[in-house]
Every structure is written in C-alpha cells, then in structure tokens.
Amino acid sequence: EAQVTQNPRYLITVTGKKLTVTCSQNMNHEYMSWYRQDPGLGLRQIYYSMNVEVTDKGDVPEGYKVSRKEKRNFPLILESPSPNQTSLYFCASSFHRGDTQYFGPGTRLTVL
Amino acid sequence: QQQVKQSPQSLIVQKGGISIINCAYENTAFDYFPWYQQFPGKGPALLIAIRPDVSEKKEGRFTISFNKSAKQFSLHIMDSQPGDSATYFCAANNGQNFVFGPGTRLSVLP
Q1: Which B residues, 27 through 66, put their C-beta within 8 Å of a C-beta on chain A?
Q2: To which H or E segment does residue A23 belong?
Q3: What distance in Å separates the CA atoms of residue B21 and residue B80, rounded to the nearest whole number?
C-alpha cells in the first residue's frame, strides 16, 4: 500500500530533550516536506526537500533540523524542544515539487 | 506576499445545499492551487486542484472556480452531505514550497 508513515504518533517530552520524528514514504517520491498545524493558523511549512541531500527552509524553520540521506526518509529533528513547538506535525511527499502531496497520519507533540 | 487568505473560518450548511469557500493570494508566482480535506485525527487529503490556465475544474460534486486577474479561487460543494463535514484547506504552490490557508470547518446538518 502506497503511504507516508510517521513515528511516533504521539509524544510528550520536556524542554531541551532532543527528539526525532521519523517520516518514510514508499512511493519513490522526490519531494518531501514537514508541516506543523496549529489552530487558526492552518498548515505551515517547516522544511522541504526536492531530492536526496537537497533541503530548504519553509516558512517556520526556527528550532528544527532535517536531513535527506535516502529518498524514502525525511526525519525531523528538534535539538532543544521548547513549549512553543507543541503542535501537530505532518510529513508529506509528492513525485515532484508542484504535484499532489500525500500526507502522513500526523504526530502530536507536547513539550512540557 | 506568501500568505493565502481563506474565508469563512466556519460554515454550516443544510444537507443538499451548496457550500462555498473562498481563498485569495498575492504572489503571482503561484501556479498550482490544490484543495485539501481533513477529517479529525487524519492527515489532509487532496480533494481537487487547478492550475491557472483554466478558470474552472469540476470533479463530481466539487468545483474549483479560479479568477486569475483577481487572484482568487473558490471551492463549491454541490448537494452537500453530512459526510462532507470536515476542515477544508486551500493551498498555493510556487514550484518550490506550499502555502496553506488557515482552514474552513464545514458542518453539514442532516
């Protein structure tokens, strides 16, 4: 089944404790992206990647890191999480940068 | 200039009625305009999309109307059903990154 998977689905952590949210797609998509969703603000793009080893900042990149060492994986790294990063996070992928994006199921992160 | 505005914030429609959600953008570099539907606890899923070379696209009960000169586009849901109750997001892409509207929560009453 073609899909985007994210892990974990739920995470509660404390301020300053490094964490990684994994994202994997099995559709051989070139373009991958991370979003955060907050009430009243819709989805805001954090980082995107147009191919392996090619990443770029979206609208809200501060406090986040990403890497794209393999085509299928695009992890989101929070080196020192803060409470304002409490949010619902979505990973998405598409064949190319202007194509339909397929979203993962989301990761709900709470930073205490 | 990267912003996409969306209205209304919430919408209540009777079953069988027409639901209309409007979006507006500033950046003329946008060239792909998708609409996403999101149910509670799920990720957004593509509903319908349009490129600026056409003024309207219809897929079943869903229609996008696009006005390039006004930099506006809208989603029309004909014969709205309770199963259409969800949050709808418009978005715009400039060939690199996506910008989403803040969302419209649609409730269709039985």
Answers
A1: 31-32, 34, 36, 41-46, 49
A2: strand A19-25
A3: 13
